[in-house]
Write a structure and sequence with these properties.
This protein has 570 residues and is an alpha/beta fold. The chain is 38% helix and 21% strand. Bound molecules: zinc ion.
Length: 570
């Protein structure tokens, strides 16, 4: 069965998604703890039970080379052998190749072995390129990796297609284009050395180069990126899978992971963590010896890692992922550099970022200046014809009429001065332009009737005569047009502006007319200036208005996905 991936919530280029594979359903971002059957530190039943791990990763190469167990794994299959019914990903031995320089197997052999043991996700024998490899050599290695990917195309497992290229973004881009469309899952390989030596800005460049060149329906695995301090950053760029051998490897070296970095366990005087292991031992953890200490540290490291994945998911749900990343960036100068690198990709991220979010926008410092929300807001303000502006950081000059809407509303509320007084009709006209385009303000007539909420005294409904033409959403103050206003918008702007154009499928069009969501596969075209969360005109190919809706993905994603919801009908 093929892998199915749905995006359920979005923030920046990050996504909260759902992957279905072989009858198993997992939520992304997802962490695969690496389990080493030859040297288990945390047993599988503990991973599955106490840690509630829906997935794990194991090294197929090491199992294949272990004569004592190979026969048994082949016969029973990986799930039965490990006693784990979640998602199992296996690695091909490429990591061993990076560390030891060579492995004793062939691409065909390791693919076949992973098929035999029933891996849900498997790998071909890619050539991991360490970041600083001489470029011609990196190119050669990439070529070989791509050749080997061909052999895996018909594998029985879902292929985790390696994208290599070292630190060279052009090679990473080339690799992504070669892999894109052929595989549902891509792994950004060879990045562990960047993580370990704190070269986070380069890490951002590498991930961005891959993401910008892969179709957006590809699930992306940041291979070996196991330090929780990097999860928010990588998730913001659109990484969906992480794996961690790091929780155990760090434990062997006496390293205690935190949200913001790594501590040496012997230097700890107090425990800033309340995971079961830290509660059990307290600061006595550092006085444990040998295996006991490794095990305790590994458990703590894994708890911290899982907790960070949950924090990332919550941030995506509420639309505060940028704030989480900015907070992390303050913890280490190298993280700040990574954030600067990230800002260099704001234009691309802005195209994927929702135009409105559940949680208020918080201006947290100079690093907010280039956030994708700010990029989108500045771009939209160019549409506005009024000239009364106020200085509002991080946006710069903001039209007074817009101060009630997302993202400006929360920023103003922390200032001390009273808001400038603006007439309702001027507000409404400017908001129309911000949302729908230059000149959209003229669609609000002088005789519009404005009804306000009894409690908040804020604008809630617009009428022309007895007919309601729009409502104003309480949370972000954006204008949601009813049919009459939607028809006016359609007449004012030529296709494809503001539109989601349905394909010729009459049944699908009828479903939308009756109020069902618009599915990606029935979309012919989308206005590329729309953003996820925007109100849109859903029309048929003859440009008849079918319904008014809200875009649930970005236009780019709607093009790349052939299933899932593109727009919700209101
Ligand atoms: Zn702990």
């Amino acid at each position: 069965m093929a892998l199915k991936f749905d995006v359920r919530r979005k923030d920046a280029a990050g996504r909260l998604g759902r992957v279905e594979l072989n009858g198993k359903r997992v939520e992304t971002p997802l962490l695969f703890p690496v389990y080493n059957p030859n040297k288990p530190i945390i047993p599988v039943d503990e991973l599955a039970g106490e840690f509630n791990a829906p997935a794990l990763m194991a090294n197929a190469y090491m199992l294949m080379k272990n004569e004592a167990v190979r026969g048994e794994v082949e016969e029973r299959g990986m799930h039965d052998f490990l006693g784990f019914d979640g998602l199992i990903a296996t690695d091909s031995g490429s990591y061993q190749m990076m560390v030891y320089g060579a492995v004793e197997t062939t691409n065909a052999e390791i693919i076949k072995f992973q098929e035999k043991i029933g891996s849900d996700i498997g790998s071909f024998l890619d050539i991991p390129t360490v970041p600083d490899t001489y470029k011609p050599r990196a190119r050669e290695q990439l070529q070989l990796t791509l050749e080997r990917s061909v052999e895996a195309e018909n594998a029985a497992f879902t292929v985790n297609a390696a994208v290599q290229g070292g630190k060279y973004v052009d090679l990473r881009a080339e690799a992504s284009k070669a892999v894109g469309g052929r595989f549902e899952l891509a792994a950004i390989g060879g990045i562990v050395p960047l993580m370990e030596s704190y070269r986070f800005a380069e890490l951002v460049e590498v991930i961005a180069a891959v993401k910008e060149n892969l179709p957006l329906n590809t699930v992306v695995h940041a291979f070996g990126l196991g330090h929780p301090m990097l999860f928010p950053l990588a998730a913001l760029l659109g990484c969906d899978f992480f794996d961690s051998a790091a929780y155990a490897l760090y434990a062997f070296n006496g390293r205690y992971m935190t949200d913001y970095g790594t501590e040496r366990v012997e230097e700890l005087e107090h425990m800033g963590c309340t995971c079961p292991t830290c509660r059990e031992y307290g600061v006595k953890l550092k006085r444990l010896y040998g295996e006991d200490r490794v095990r305790a540290l590994a458990r703590h490291n894994l708890y911290v890692s899982y907790a960070m994945v949950e924090k990332v998911k919550q941030a995506i749900s509420e639309g505060s992922l940028w704030e989480l990343v900015c907070l992390q960036a303050r913890a280490h100068p190298r993280m700040m550099k990574a954030l600067d690198a990230l800002m260099g990709h704001s234009g691309w991220i802005a195209e994927l970022d929702p135009i409105t979010k559940p949680r208020a926008f918080y201006h947290t410092g100079r690093e907010s200046n280039m956030r994708s929300e700010v990029v989108n807001a500045r771009e939209r303000m160019k549409r506005i014809s009024t000239e009364n502006t106020v200085e509002l950081q991080p946006f710069g000059q903001v039209n007074e009429e817009l101060l009630d809407i997302y993202p400006f509303n929360s920023v103003w509320s922390v200032e001390d001065e009273p808001k400038p007084k603006v007439r309702d009709i001027h507000k409404l006209r400017a908001i129309m332009e911000y949302q729908y385009g230059k000149g959209a303000g003229t669609l609000i007539p002088d005789n519009v009737i404005v009804k306000k909420s009894k409690n908040t005294r804020r604008i809630r409904w617009l009428y022309e005569g007895k007919e309601m033409t729009a409502s104003v959403r309480a949370t972000d103050h954006l204008i949601l047009p009813k049919e009459k206003l939607a028809v006016k918008l359609k007449e004012k702007y030529e296709t494809p502006k503001l539109r989601v154009i349905l394909s010729d499928d009459e049944d699908a069009t009828q479903c939308v007319r009756e109020g069902k969501s618009v599915m990606c596969k029935f979309v012919e075209e989308v206005d590329s200036n729309l953003r996820c969360g925007d109100e849109c005109l859903i029309v048929d190919k003859k440009d008849n208005l079918v319904r008014v809706g809200t875009l649930m993905l970005s236009p780019k994603e709607i093009k790349d996905f052939n299933h899932g919801m593109a727009a919700r009908v209101r």
